[in-house]
From TrEMBL:
GO terms for cellular component: plasma membrane. PANTHER family: DIPEPTIDE TRANSPORT SYSTEM PERMEASE PROTEIN DPPB-RELATED. This is Peptide ABC transporter. GO terms for biological process: transmembrane transport.
């Protein structure tokens, strides 16, 4: 396992360097001059040129990229063009809200999706299965922003149970977490059902039943562990997507999260914050994928056997 984890960590290095290159290139070719943004449109041309030299913007693309990569490797993501604060500080201020929102949504999705998927698979074509698949279809089809607005209308306006904005208490977190977790729960339900149906048709499952094991033991102990491998993939990908894709939910519920920070920075042409935010999300996403790979090795002994 140590060799496997070390190999996966080494594989993250070129991936992250590639992400830095892509993000830097996109911001480099994006219209807009950071020096002009800092000094204003009416600033004298000479001052703009001087600031560009101070920021290293007069250098060719390759030199600018390697300077930025060197700063990133030292943990320096630069300073915000609008507030003048370190980008790392602004990201770390916003990230806890996004992390709580995404983690809560994934936990909710897992608590709903896996049990419902198991029940649907073990009772294929029954009323429970049909209702579950209809609910999963609705969860995938209905966009999050529409669900968020309906949740506010139902539970904040008509029935004032939960607040409609902010992220200060657990009551504030209920509606956005439910809104964000619905589509993920639907995907996990469908994947769990599909994977369980495939595993339940295997010969070793029939053998376990022929030995006289009760159905609960067959499903939970023998089938579920093997069926979870593709499900874990979906869970890991969903968590990564939620970290970077909770923008609409954060905006609807007025949550000061990382996704909202990046979108606002794009609108303001705050390139340093955009670069730092996307890179931060890429690192988190890569670490989540590493965790998924470690869980693979735990669930599938064949992976561990390759590194003994």
């Amino acid at each position: 396992m140590h060799k496997y984890i070390f190999k996966r960590l080494l594989q993250l290095i070129p991936v992250l360097i590639g992400v830095v290159f892509i993000v830097f290139t996109i911001t480099y070719i994006t219209p807009g001059d950071p020096a002009t943004i800092l000094l204003g449109e009416q600033a004298p041309e000479e001052q703009v040129k001087q600031l560009r030299r101070q920021m290293g913007l007069h250098l060719p693309f390759g030199a600018q990229f390697f300077n930025y990569l060197s700063d990133v490797l030292q943990g320096d993501l630069g300073y915000s063009l609008t507030s003048g604060r370190p980008v790392t500080v602004e990201i770390l201020e916003r990230f806890p809200n996004t992390f709580i929102l995404s983690t809560g949504a994934v936990i909710l999705a897992v608590l709903i999706g896996i049990p419902v998927g198991i029940i649907s698979a073990t009772r294929q074509y029954s009323k429970i299965d049909n209702i579950s698949m209809l609910g999963a279809l609705l969860g995938v089809s209905l966009p999050n922003f529409w669900q968020g607005m309906m949740a506010i209308l139902l539970f904040s306006v008509w029935l004032p149970i939960f607040p409609s904005s902010g992220f200060d208490t657990w009551q504030h977190a209920v509606l956005p977490i439910v809104t964000l977790g619905t589509s993920s729960a639907a995907l996990i339900t469908r994947m769990t059902r599909s994977s369980m149906l495939e595993v339940l048709r295997q010969d070793y499952i029939r053998t376990a039943r022929a030995k006289g094991l009760d159905e609960r033991t067959v499903v939970i102990k023998h089938a579920l562990k093997n069926a979870l491998i593709p499900v874990i993939t979906v869970i890991g990908l969903q968590f990564g997507f939620l970290l970077g894709g909770a923008v609409l939910t954060e905006r609807i519920f007025s949550i000061a999260g990382l996704g909202r920070l990046i979108v606002d920075s794009i609108r303001e042409q705050n390139f340093t914050v955009v670069q730092g935010g996307v890179l931060f999300i890429a690192v988190i996403f890569s670490l989540v994928n590493l965790l998924v790979d470690i869980l693979y090795a735990y669930l599938d002994p064949r992976i561990k056997a390759q590194y003994k």
